[in-house]
Amino acid sequence: MSGSNPLGSEFSRAEDSTGLILWQVTNSWQAAQRAALKPFGLTHVQFVLLAALTWMEASGPMTQSDLAAHVRTDPMMTSQVLRALETRGLLRRRPHPSDSRARAVTVTPEGADLARRANAAVEDTDRRFFAPLASGRADFTAMLRDLATAAGPAVNPSLPGE
C-alpha cells in the first residue's frame, strides 16, 4: 500500500469513484426532493408509492406486493407506508377481488389530487436539478435505466417467484 492511497483503491482520487459520486449526487437529489415534498406533507417514499399507484391504478386492482415490486421497495416497509397514507385518507386497502390472500390498494380522489400536485413539484425539481446535463439528460436516464435493469427487480430476493 502506498502512502498516497492508504485504501489500496483503484482510484487515484476519491472523485473518480463512480459509487462515491453517485452517493453524493443521490444525497443532494434526495435533499432537493424532500424540500419539494415538504409542503405536501409527504416523504419521498410516500410520494413514490402514491404516484405509482395513481399512475398504475387504471390497469386494474393493484396489490401491495405488486406496488412494492414495481417501485422496488421492501414489502414490509411498503405496507407501513401505505398504512400511513390510508390513515390520511389518501388511499384504501381492501380485500383483493381475485386473490383472497392479497390486499387491493386504490387511491382516493384526495390522494390522486395530492399525487398530481406533488408530481408537478417533483418534476420541476428534477428539471432544475438535472439542468446541468442539458442535452445529455436522456442519455443519462437511459444509462440509469440500464443499471436498474441489471440490478434486477427485487429489493427482497427472498420473495416467492423472484
What are the key terms here?
162 residues, single chain, mainly alpha, 6 helices, 3 strands, globular, three-stranded antiparallel beta sheet
How would you characterize the overall build of this protein?
The protein has six helices and three strands. The chain has 162 residues and is mainly α. Helix 2 (44-56) crosses helix 4 (75-87), helix 2 (44-56) crosses helix 5 (109-129) and helix 3 packs across helix 4 (75-87).
Secondary structure elements and pairings:
Blueprint: H1 18-37, H2 44-56, E1 62-63, H3 64-71, H4 75-87, E2 91-95, E3 103-107, H5 109-129, H6 137-151
Helix pairs in contact: 1-5, 2-3, 2-4, 2-5, 3-4
Question: What's the gist of this structure?
Answer:
With 162 residues, the chain is mainly alpha-helical. 56% of the residues lie in helices and 7% in strands. Helix 1 packs across helix 5, helix 2 (44-56) crosses helix 3 (64-71) and helix 2 (44-56) packs across helix 4 (75-87).
Helix content: 55-70%
Number of helices: 6
Coarse structural class: mainly alpha
- Work out the oligomeric state of the chains in this entry: single chain
The major β-sheet equals: 3 strands, antiparallel
**Rg calc:** 19 Å
| Beta-strand residue fraction | 5-15%
Strand order of the largest sheet: 1-3-2
Element-level helix/strand string: HHEHHEEHH
Number of strands: 3
How far apart the termini lie comes to 41 Å
Low-confidence spans:
156-162
| C-alpha geometry | globular
Which whole number gives the mean pLDDT?
Answer: 88
